[in-house]
Design goal:
Order of helices and strands: HEEEEEEEEEEEEEEEEEEEEHEEH
Number of helices: 3
Number of domains: 1
Helix content: 10-25%
Strand content: 35-45%
Distance between the termini: 58 Å
Length: about 280
């Protein structure tokens, strides 16, 4: 996979977000991090949030993340993102995301049933690697209860003190802002099979299998004068409470599986045949 497909720079359109610039942005309530599961039936993509699939299909996936703009506040944390500076690996000053933990799961009641047989592969971005840090795991295929597996306990740590997610030229201590812009990063890739069934299904990006109090994400930004770092070590407890309150600190977005067009056509023909038999009866 090319470096361009692994790391897609996405400069955030601040005007569209209702802010004039990073230095003068006004606070807005939103998640601090969005993590999304995207899929494709081709290893080369394109990767989208909805994939047409049927039993026997192989679906390739990417886990992508995007940090929220400077000035974003979240009532559940009691704080705001004060000052993004460009991610500079492990060299201070640096900011961004250092780790993310997640599972990939599905309800056993979904029409289309997926099966995970291998773990997620971390990618390299911004002078570091997701999954290279101490404590990283690719996840464990774990029985769903219907003969298929979820992927539980993926732990992606970058090298110690190494952050990514904010592009731009590193700034000097005491410099409040530079040319920073937020990135959309692909931090993990993998594949699963559609094992059985018909209709639709949802593959969730969630926290199944993680214990209470577990740190699931480490985010860092800088103070207004860029003289010290502000660290948010986000836990399962805080995430669950924020979801209950309707103000999630991390927005986890699932992958939707929908029937392939040919499958829909067969279902339509079957439905017409059933209707005709009922009319004759």
């Amino acid at each position: 996979m090319s470096a361009a497909s692994i790391k897609r720079f996405a400069a955030v359109a601040l005007a569209a977000a209702g802010v004039a610039g990073l230095a003068g942005s006004t606070a807005s309530a939103a998640p601090f991090l969005t993590a999304r599961l995207l899929g494709s039936t081709s290893a080369g993509g394109p990767f989208t949030s909805s994939v047409s699939a049927s039993a026997g299909s192989t679906v390739f996936y990417q886990v992508q993340i995007t940090l929220a703009p400077q000035g974003t506040s979240n009532a559940q944390t009691g704080t705001s993102i004060v000052n993004w500076v460009p991610s500079n690996g492990s060299t201070s000053p640096t900011a961004g995301l250092q780790s993310l933990l997640f599972s990939l799961t599905q309800s056993s009641g979904d029409g289309l049933q997926t099966n995970f047989s291998t773990g997620a592969a971390g990618t390299s971005t911004g002078g570091g690697t997701w999954g290279a840090g101490v404590g990283s795991t690719t996840g464990t295929p774990t029985a769903r209860g219907n003969g298929n597996n979820n992927l539980i306990n993926v732990r992606l740590f970058r090298e110690s003190g190494n952050f990514d997610g904010v592009a731009g030229t590193p700034v000097a201590t005491g410099e409040a802002t530079g040319s920073e812009s937020l990135e959309t990063l692909t931090i993990a890739t993998g594949s699963f099979t559609v094992a059985s069934g018909s209709g639709s299904g949802t593959v969730n990006l969630d926290l199944t299998g993680f214990t209470a109090g577990q740190i699931i994400a480490a985010i860092r930004w800088r103070d207004a004068g860029n003289t010290s770092s502000i660290n948010l070590n986000h836990t399962t407890n805080a995430q669950n409470a924020s979801v209950t309150a309707g103000d999630p600190i991390i927005a986890f977005q699932p992958l939707q599986l929908v029937p392939e067009p040919a499958t829909l056509g067969l279902l339509g023909v079957a439905g017409l045949g059933l209707l005709a038999r009922r009319r004759r009866a």
